[in-house]
């Protein structure tokens, strides 16, 4: 738009009339009022003028050669670029049906000829004011939508941050509380085994030195199977040793998963994070009741160490693996077209010297087209009420894309499974690393 003498923007008005006298009169009067005015003497010229520069308002005669005003209006309303231009009809037709049709095709006002210019001017000003207010409202709505989106994102970040803090505290507490008693048990098992071996040797010595035991000992030996006890005792101690070792591995997995006591960002082995996450999810991978066992197939490349926020990357692994397990637990993918059992593939590879890729794929039912467009939206979830708040994939996206300058994408077709692809730089830009 241009500017008038008072520095306010001038409206651009297109006047369409096949009567030269009317066209000159209206044009001159509007120019005198400070408007930019363009003229057209038929419908086709009017459509061409509109395509060249979109006007703020159109004064449109109905009786035009070849294409009447109604048809011009209909053409304009079909085009997204021109459908919101206010159109005021000017016509000598004063029948009610003509006026009704004018409004039906999209006109905003109707002025009957002969007209008073003051009336035309006031109606133009009213429509331009309405148009301006509608434009302001549209801008405010856009700003409001942006604000709501930012609010949701901030809310999601706050909730996830609180979850991560709580998870870290929980992991720290569990690891500390379990580690001490397990250390006591594990540390005492070795001397206990040695003491038992010594006691058994003593019993064998007594048997050799006193081959004829007393009646009381003979009676006890008849009720008590010494050989069975000796063999079973070794099995019990071995089972206790294996159990404590497994608990120690779980504690180590918790420490790797949460990276307790380590700096926020440092070079790490991503395979350690994946394996520790799988160990923590082991209880969900085993067969239970009607649920089939979920097979894990790993294909690890020789990856370089990746500088990242390790605990956050592990959170991404946990969220993606949990989603795959949730899909397979529904019974989806128990038998697929390839006749495979429920399966999750974890594939790592070096894309180039500065970037690695992690792919997590399952053979579930995949993602529908309706869900795909909303997958990374905050609070969107396909799970029943109470079983998820829709922050998992939003958090994954923020951690990978926004915090680590990586990429998170997915491939999925219904009944063909789903694959999430993480691309991570081996070294984050503009980030100080504490080794």
Automatic annotation (TrEMBL):
<keyword id="KW-0808">Transferase</keyword>
<dbReference type="InterPro" id="IPR011006">
    <property type="entry name" value="CheY-like_superfamily"/>
</dbReference>
<dbReference type="GO" id="GO:0000155">
    <property type="term" value="F:phosphorelay sensor kinase activity"/>
</dbReference>
<keyword id="KW-0418">Kinase</keyword>
<feature type="domain" description="Histidine kinase">
    <location>
        <begin position="173"/>
        <end position="428"/>
    </location>
</feature>
<keyword id="KW-0902">Two-component regulatory system</keyword>
<dbReference type="InterPro" id="IPR003661">
    <property type="entry name" value="HisK_dim/P_dom"/>
</dbReference>
<dbReference type="InterPro" id="IPR001789">
    <property type="entry name" value="Sig_transdc_resp-reg_receiver"/>
</dbReference>
<dbReference type="InterPro" id="IPR036097">
    <property type="entry name" value="HisK_dim/P_sf"/>
</dbReference>
<keyword id="KW-0175">Coiled coil</keyword>
<feature type="modified residue" description="4-aspartylphosphate">
    <location>
        <position position="61"/>
    </location>
</feature>
<feature type="coiled-coil region">
    <location>
        <begin position="130"/>
        <end position="161"/>
    </location>
</feature>
<dbReference type="Pfam" id="PF00072">
    <property type="entry name" value="Response_reg"/>
</dbReference>
<dbReference type="InterPro" id="IPR005467">
    <property type="entry name" value="His_kinase_dom"/>
</dbReference>
<dbReference type="InterPro" id="IPR004358">
    <property type="entry name" value="Sig_transdc_His_kin-like_C"/>
</dbReference>
<dbReference type="InterPro" id="IPR036890">
    <property type="entry name" value="HATPase_C_sf"/>
</dbReference>
<dbReference type="Pfam" id="PF02518">
    <property type="entry name" value="HATPase_c"/>
</dbReference>
<dbReference type="InterPro" id="IPR003594">
    <property type="entry name" value="HATPase_dom"/>
</dbReference>
<feature type="domain" description="Response regulatory">
    <location>
        <begin position="12"/>
        <end position="128"/>
    </location>
</feature>
<keyword id="KW-0597">Phosphoprotein</keyword>
<protein>
    <recommendedName>
        <fullName>histidine kinase</fullName>
        <ecNumber>2.7.13.3</ecNumber>
    </recommendedName>
</protein>
């Amino acid at each position: 738009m241009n500017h008038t003498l008072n520095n306010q923007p001038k409206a651009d008005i297109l006047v369409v009339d096949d009567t030269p006298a009317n066209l000159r009169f209206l044009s001159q009067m509007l120019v005198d009022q400070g408007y930019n005015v363009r003229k057209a003497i038929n419908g086709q010229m009017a459509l061409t003028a509109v395509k060249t520069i979109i006007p703020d308002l159109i004064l449109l005669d109905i009786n035009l050669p070849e294409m009447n005003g109604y048809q011009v209006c209909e053409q304009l309303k079909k085009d997204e670029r021109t459908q919101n231009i206010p159109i005021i009809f000017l016509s000598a037709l004063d029948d009610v049906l003509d006026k009704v049709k004018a409004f039906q095709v999209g006109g905003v006002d109707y002025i009957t000829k002969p007209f008073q210019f003051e009336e035309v001017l006031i109606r133009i000003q009213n429509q331009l004011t309405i148009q301006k207010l509608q434009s302001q409202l549209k801008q405010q709505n856009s700003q409001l939508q942006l604000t709501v989106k930012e609010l949701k994102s901030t809310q999601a970040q706050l909730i996830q941050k609180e979850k991560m803090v709580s998870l870290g505290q929980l992991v720290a507490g569990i690891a500390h509380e379990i580690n001490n008693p397990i250390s006591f048990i594990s540390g005492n098992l070795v001397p206990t085994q040695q003491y038992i071996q010594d006691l058994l040797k003593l019993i064998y010595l007594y048997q050799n030195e006193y081959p004829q035991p007393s009646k009381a000992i003979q009676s006890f030996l008849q009720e008590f199977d010494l050989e069975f006890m000796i063999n079973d005792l070794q099995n019990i101690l071995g089972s206790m040793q294996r159990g404590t070792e497994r608990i120690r591995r779980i504690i180590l997995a918790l420490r790797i998963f949460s990276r307790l006591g380590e700096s926020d960002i440092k070079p790490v082995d991503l395979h350690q994070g994946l394996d520790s996450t799988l160990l923590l999810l082991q209880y969900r991978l085993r067969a239970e009741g009607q649920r089939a066992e979920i097979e894990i197939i790993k294909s690890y490349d020789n990856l370089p160490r990746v500088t990242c926020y390790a605990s956050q990357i592990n959170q991404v692994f946990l969220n993606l693996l949990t989603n795959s397990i949730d899909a397979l637990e529904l019974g989806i993918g128990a038998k697929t077209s390839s006749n495979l059992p429920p399966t999750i593939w974890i594939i790592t590879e070096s894309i180039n010297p500065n970037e690695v890729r992690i792919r997590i794929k399952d053979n579930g039912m995949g993602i529908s087209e309706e869900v795909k467009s909303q997958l990374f939206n905050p609070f969107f979830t396909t799970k029943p009420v109470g079983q998820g708040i829709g922050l998992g994939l939003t958090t994954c996206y923020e951690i990978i894309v926004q915090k680590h300058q990586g990429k998170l994408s997915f491939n999925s077709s219904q009944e063909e499974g789903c694959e999430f692809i993480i691309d991570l730089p081996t070294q984050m830009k503009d980030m100080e690393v504490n080794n």
